[in-house]
Amino acid sequence: MTQSAETTEQLASAVRRFVREQLLPAEPKVEEDDDIPAAIIRQLKDLGLFGMTIPEEYGGLGLSMYEEARVVFEIGYASPVFRSYFGTSNGVGTLGILIDGTEEQRKQYLPGIASGDLVASFCLTEPDAGSDAAALTTRAVRDGDHYVISGTKRFTTNSPHAGIFTVFARTAPKEAGSRGISAFLVERATPGISIAPHYKKMGFRGSHTADVIFENCRVPASALLGGQEGIGFKTAMKSLDHARIHMAAVAVGLCERIIDEGVRYAMDRRQFGKPISDFQLIQGMLADCAAEAFAARAMVEKASRDKDAGIRITKESACCKYFATEALGRIADRVLQIHGGYGYIKEYAIERLYRDARLLRIYEGTSQIQQLVIAREMLKEAR
Ligand code: COS
User: Fold this and answer.
1) Which residue of 13, 138, 160, 352 has the fewest C-beta atoms within 10 A of its own C-beta?
2) How far does residue 238's CA lie from ligand 1's centre (Å)?
3) What domain range is 10 assigned to?
4) Is the Cβ atom of 50 under 6 angstroms away from ligand 1?
5) Residue 256 catalytic?
6) Are residues 33 and 157 in the same domain?
7) Coil, strand, or helix at residue 274?
């Protein structure tokens, strides 16, 4: 085992222990309070989880994609709400800075993000630009050595806690399409930003998502990500290529958790004089769950190794996100079915996990957008 593989295994087993000892027991209270206790956020910081993807020279752990996936499988076993709190700081909120940011921008923001003191959020989606991200209308108008940003960003995960936003805005007219989009690093304290009250969601209680409104928000020209106009859309797409593998790894962890819930229940619950796990129809459902979770894990491992080898993984990351999150939906549904009426009441974790799982097929690109990306890449390869 290499030094780095050994360190990753150590981190993965520390996270595994933390999940079982601290996070699983805290889940019901997080659901009830719609908040994560400060002591848990402190521990997430101490484990270095806010800076998993950030290179060591900026204070992060500098994990490769494979190593990141390995750790995310473990954290994904707990309610996805915990991962969500540091997810944008490792993922879409930070990847733009890592991929296309200037050295000054990296030095300015990455150490704070890596320590967890500066929460990063990603402002792409708008009221009328969701799947069609290139249709966004937020504008950034150059004014001397500043830009003035105006527009509304929707469903911004962690925005109530964020200190830094990666904001996608038009610097060229609509006709320029995706090439007229630029990215800006906007600090929360900048005048002209307001955060709406957070949404009441179907699940994910404890993770906060809100609209961010920019009204004549003046930022210095140095806030332009990479110092270049017109590259923002590609920055967003490259960030999502990475983030979708991460999200698939979250789905794998959650599949494995839900399967364990199903196995435990099936072994405990007795009907017709024996545990329901003795019945072949229950066994069939459990076997389908295990096969799909195993396939999803293997896909994520392969795609992340390919990414680490420098191979373009746009298609593979969409395949992973599509398959793993759809498998998660089927697994959550089967395990709820195994629980019967008890699956529909709040006594068992499956009722909550089923609601939480539903989001993964929607955010960071719906399943239909993943299908579209996969097919486009296939056709591009064939040409
Ligand atoms: N990596 C690098 N460049 C990419 C890319 C990728 N993964 N995907 C697209 N691009 C480039 C294209 O090559 C094209 O470049 P040129 O202008 O030089 O030709 C440009 O970006 C525009 O791409 P495309 O024409 O494919 O854009 P579309 O508007 O047709 O659609 C989809 C792109 C639908 C894939 C995109 O809008 C998308 O992913 N939507 C979902 C958004 C999403 O996931 N939102 C969730 C919320 S954010 S957490």
Assistant:
1) 13
2) 9
3) 5-115
4) no
5) no
6) no
7) strand
Identify the residue whose C-alpha is closest to ligand 1 atom 8.
237
> For residue 363, what is the domain's CATH number?
1.20.140.10
Indicate if ligand 1 lies below 6 Å from the C-beta of 125: yes
Query: Quick check: helix, strand or coil at residue 6?
Result: helix
Task: Measure the CA–CA gap between 246 and 49, rounded to whole angstroms.
Answer: 13
| Residue 2 pLDDT grade (very low, low, confident, very high; cuts 50, 70, 90) | low
Residue of 234, 373, 378 to mutate, ligand 1, most atoms within 8 A of C-beta: 234
Q: CB of 233 closer than 6 A to ligand 1?
A: yes
d(CA 109, CA 165): 11
> pTM (2 decimals)?
0.97
CA dist list (Å): 81 to 31, 209, 254:
9, 11, 11
Please tell me if the CB atom of residue 164 comes closer than 6 angstroms to any atom of ligand 1.
no
* Same-domain pairing of 213 and 186: yes
Domain count, the chain: 3
Separation of 180 CA from ligand 1 center, angstroms? 13
Q: What is the structure's pLDDT at 42?
A: 97
With a cut of 80, say whether residue 227 has pLDDT above it: yes
Alpha-carbon distance of 339 to 308, in angstroms, equals: 40
Q: Domain check: are 271 and 171 in the same one?
A: no
pLDDT digits (tens, 9 = 90+) for 120-146: 999 999 999 999 999 999 999 999 999
